[in-house]
Write a structure and sequence with these properties.
The protein has 168 residues and is of the alpha+beta class. It has a single domain, classed as Aminopeptidase, CATH 3.40.630.30. 24% of the residues lie in helices and 26% in strands. The chain contains three helices and seven strands. Strands 1-2-3-4-5-7-6 form a seven-stranded mixed β-sheet, with helices on both faces. Helix 2 links the parallel strand 4 and strand 5. The termini are close together. The structure holds coenzyme A. Coenzyme A binds at residues 23, 26, 90-92, 97-103, 121, 125, 127-128, 130-131, 134-135.
Length: 168
């Protein structure tokens, strides 16, 4: 499986805007105040800042050339203190899940940005917690910190050396 992350430059903004409600639908299972309006639409939208600020990075995820998800990455001043990079959003379309695509997309993103990383999950989003522990554990060979009852991971990848084994 060939997994790529593609810079979601301004012409791809509508693509992420279109995928965003699918992501919100998944998160609505874990967050009480994510709801649809009477028209059946989610009110929240992806922030336009992702296409206005140099410190924010939107990416599409492609698997064997097909659109499979998106991720939004933040750097200061949009991160917590003493953090260089954060995953703001990370989404893989359902039909592409459990195929190692999220794992490879995360590795691509981590490889692209070197520094102090922080990744957080919603307390009720247990699948995401399992995913990030697995992926970050593998990426760092276990050299990462866990905080907030397992809902936050921190690691530094400035001097990590690793091999990425592609899933069959
Ligand atoms: C979480 C998410 C990104 C995982 O993407 P994915 O492409 O399915 O993940 P992968 O196939 O690369 O999984 C890698 C490993 O993570 C773990 N994992 C992934 N999804 C899991 C789940 N639902 N339950 C338990 N473990 C899971 C497994 O160990 C998996 O390896 P395995 O399939 O060999 O057992 C995807 O389910 C998703 O988009 N969810 C909705 C949005 C969301 O919650 N985003 C995270 C925000 S922090």
């Amino acid at each position: 499986m060939k997994v790529e992350i593609i810079d979601a430059t301004i012409e791809f903004k509508p693509v992420i805007k279109n995928l965003y409600p699918l992501y919100l639908h998944d998160l609505s299972e874990f967050v009480s105040d994510i709801d649809v309006s009477d028209l059946g639409l989610f009110n929240a939208e992806v922030s336009n800042l992702f296409w206005q600020k140099d410190a924010l990075f939107p990416f599409l995820v492609k698997a064997n050339g097909k659109l499979a998800g998106f991720t939004l990455i933040a750097s200061p001043p949009y991160t917590s203190k003493e953090t260089d990079y954060m995953i703001n959003e990370f989404f893989i379309i359902r039909k592409y899940r459990r195929k190692g695509i999220g794992r490879l997309a995360a590795f691509e993103v981590f490889n692209k940005f070197r520094g102090k990383w922080e990744v957080s999950e919603l307390p009720k989003n247990l699948p995401a917690q399992l995913f990030w522990h697995k992926v970050i554990g593998e990426y760092t060979s276990g050299r990462y910190e866990t905080l907030n009852n397992g809902t936050k991971q921190r690691f530094i990848n400035t001097d990590l050396h690793w091999h990425i084994l592609e899933k069959q």
